[in-house]
Input
Amino acid sequence: MAKRNGRRANRSQAYVSSGGHEYGRGNTAVDRVHQREPEAICAANYCLIKVEIRRKHRDRMRSKARIMKAVVISRYGEPEVLELREVPEPEAGPEDLLVTVKAAALNRADLLQRRGLYPPPDPQPEFDIPGLEFAGEVSAVGSRCSGFESGDRVMGLLPYGGCAEKVALNQRLVSHVPEGMPWIEAGAVPEAFITAHDALAQCGLLAGESLLVHAAGSGVGVAAIQIAKVMGASWIAGTAGSAAKLSAAAQLGLDLGINYREEDFAQRIAQESRNRATKGVDVVLDVIGAAYLESNLRVLAEKGRMIVVGVMGGISAELNLAVLLQKRLQIRGTLLRARALEAKAAAIRAFETSVLPHLASGRIRVVVDKTFPLDSIVEAHQYMESNANFGKIVLEL
Output
């Protein structure tokens, strides 16, 4: 037994020091106890060294982690809370692509996330990084992925994290960028065009029908006008806050532009549709919400459909059910971010079939209003909040 105890004692002394203390040399309280209880001190040494090994391993892993630059919401508030920081690169799973981002567009949802009004879905990320869309080059492909290779030019949808040098996401949320499309334009495509196409499809917009698009100068508005024309819409009205925006929208296919600062859009559409077969419009695509609800119901024709894709004008309003019944109206709401993976993937595949070929041919245009470098994220958010843009605001990496 003594031999075994001696062997264990020697083993305890063989372990190297931990936390700056050298054990087994008689210069610590632990060594003094060791002289009386060698078995106990052997176990104590072993536990201390295991803790030290784990700590050093963790430190090594952290030092080896690849670092990228990303925009982080340091706290909720005004644009100044956005900080460009160094954070660990995302890890890609077997069904994921790791992408080096070349461009990432801003959306109104980013402003809400920055204010704490639109948090990322669970599980909550370690760093609160905004950004719902991107375009970039595939740098790594998961073992279960197919149809993608390193070096491919892609664009896609994200629940968050797009304002960064790298993103990792499921391959089903990614599309190939059309040949010849610049990175800046590709980064402005996914969120606006998939949202607009999906919304019009949910409303069942048919060839020959009419459409009202609110915020005609926004990313979704610009996309919806062009997609509706391709779908065969016969007449498209739109609202915006300036003559310049309405003029630019007319170049994309807008038939009637209404400056909401100067006139009531419901009254104007009623006047303009007097000599048309349909009194009012068949479909309303609304990004305003509560502030426009009553007027939207007035402007809808019989069996009209309205879809709400944004609530910039509030979330609560009184609904006149009598109008809903008399006209046999339908009201829908939609979001992309909150959908399950399969539902998002279905919307992307529909976009690839119906819209992407027209983007590739140039029949549908990507309109980029202004670009900013990633380190000018504060100025980019300030510019979006000014509501001066026509089309998309894009971060260039």
